[in-house]
Amino acid sequence: MQAQPEDELSTLAAQVASCRRCPRLVDWREQVAREPRASFAGEDYWGRPVPGFGDPAARVLLLGLAPAAHGANRTGRMFTGDRSGDFLFAALWRAGFASQPGSRSRTDGLRLEDAWITAAVRCAPPENRPSPAERDACLPWSARELRLLGGVRVILCLGAFAWDGALRLIAELDEPRRAPIRPRPRFAHGAELPVGRHILLGCYHPSQQNTFTGRLTEAMIDAVLGRAREIAAGEAPQGAAQG
Fold first, then answer.
1. Where are the domains of the chain?
2. Residue 40 has what DSSP assignment?
3. In the chain, N or C terminus with fewer CB closer than 10 Å?
4. Using H for helix, E for strand and C for coil, what is the string for 174-219?
5. pLDDT in tens, 182-236
6. Which of 157, 141, 159 is closest to 149 using CA atoms?
7. Contact assessment for residue 22 and residue 126, using Cβ atoms and an 8 Å cutoff
8. Beta bridge partners of 64
9. Distance between CA atoms of 197 and 60, rounded to whole angstroms?
10. What does pTM read for this prediction?
11. Edge to edge, what strands does the sheet with 60-64 contain?
């Protein structure tokens, strides 16, 4: 009997969670888990690579940067348990992609509909800054994931690092491998880029640095998520926006 996508995604998640390819990231994520922040003292940290999660039939894939040291590295689920996730899940709920407006643990009942959340790098990096080599080491995981998520049409890139990662991902995904796009399209909030059967859509990352300063507002992320839903439903792309 042929394996179902849900089973293959579960297998992939287990393989991702056991990855030890990047010594610097392994050391850091495990150190953070051994030395938790005072506000999380006594909690059992995940302390491993974080798999993607969501609806296996998703048409929209949200691509972040990497797990937060005391967010997903603690809870074991992308964007769960930190301020960035609070902002993102509230927006996903308003847009109809999430079953509830917040998420504090991977067992809190949150479900995603027509959306999948993952990241360009699966381990929490020091100072939230993964290296290009660490990003490239994660690329095969992301390529396998996207192949299994056959319904994805929109890749919503949360920040410039994710945008660059998505361009590399699309090149890795194609058989034969797609030549790099030149000149490399610049990231911008609201930018749209058709690449093969996917459309990349740019959104500022929902970090506190962006949301607390007003660089990314609720109205801005609501508009991008609305556009993602329109594209996923088959509306023709508008082309790249500048911002």
1. 5-232
2. G
3. N
4. CCCCCCCCCCCCCCCCCCEEEECCEEEEEECCCCHHHHCCCCCCHH
5. 778 999 999 999 998 999 999 999 999 999 999 999 999 999 999 999 999 986 5
6. 141
7. no
8. 119
9. 13
10. 0.93
11. 53-54, 115-119, 60-64, 154-158, 198-203, 192-195
